[in-house]
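Incident log, support desk, overnight shift.

02:14 A customer reports that sequence design results differ from what the structure should imply. Their input is reproduced verbatim below. On-call engineer (initials T.W.) acknowledged and began investigating.
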């Protein structure tokens, strides 16, 4: 993911204060920008007046407090298939089917 396509926690807070509601579960993932340099990105699903949007937010020191204040829970995404290790043939077969 190109983190230039993310926004800041301040923009997210503006949306929340403007009446948008965040899904209670926030997916958090790490992305490699440069060799050996990773960025943490939070994916918020927001709803307002029948509209739905996803907002990727680059990690910042205020996000843990924002998650707590809005009663949001962060979860990690499902493991990437390329990270499967070992001789687990069933898992590898499932990967090929998807």
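02:41 Re-run completed on a clean worker. Output:
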């Amino acid at each position: 993911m190109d983190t230039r396509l993310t926004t800041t926690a301040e923009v997210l807070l503006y949306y929340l204060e403007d009446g948008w509601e965040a899904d209670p579960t926030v997916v958090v993932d790490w992305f490699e920008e440069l060799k050996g340099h990773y960025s943490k990105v939070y994916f918020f699903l927001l709803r307002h007046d029948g509209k739905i949007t996803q907002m990727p937010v680059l990690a910042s020191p205020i996000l843990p407090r924002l998650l707590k204040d809005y009663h949001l829970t962060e979860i990690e995404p499902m493991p990437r298939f390329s990270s499967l290790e070992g001789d687990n043939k069933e898992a590898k077969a499932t990967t090929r089917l998807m």
